[in-house]
Amino acid sequence: MITPIKATTYALMTITFEIEKRCAVCGKVSKQIALMSTNAIGYSDLDMRPPEMERSTINTWIQICPSCGYRALDISELIEKSSEAVNSDFINNS
């Protein structure tokens, strides 16, 4: 169940909630933006990005843990071997 901290409506058709999620890798809690609804009017761009208003929501599609850098559709769910990747020398030295 999503317990919203703050609800925001953009351009009358896109609804987002600010929610708290506990990272499955490091266990820290952070605020994330959850996309509740949007629409798309028109055609995709040549680079296959969706039309507006959906295009303006791309930044909400992936959650990022600010503590360890874990990225996923939902950072509270662990993707197999992701903790190994987050803690790898390749990621930490980039």
Report on the structure:
With 94 residues, the chain is mainly beta. It has one domain (6-92). It is 10% helix and 29% strand. It has two helices and five strands. The protein is globular and about 40 Å long. The mean pLDDT is 80.
Number of helices: 2
Task: State the end-to-end distance.
Answer: 36 Å
Helix content: under 10%
What is the 3D shape?
globular
For the secondary structure, the number of strands is 5
| H-E string | EEEEEHH
- Percentage beta strand: 25-35%
Rg, please? 16 Å
- Please describe the biggest sheet, giving its number of strands, its sense, and whether it closes into a barrel: 3 strands, antiparallel
Spatial ordering of strands, largest sheet = 1-2-3
Number of domains: 1
Mean pLDDT: 80
- The assigned structural class equals mainly beta
Question: What are the segments in which pLDDT stays under 50 over at least 5 consecutive residues?
Answer: none
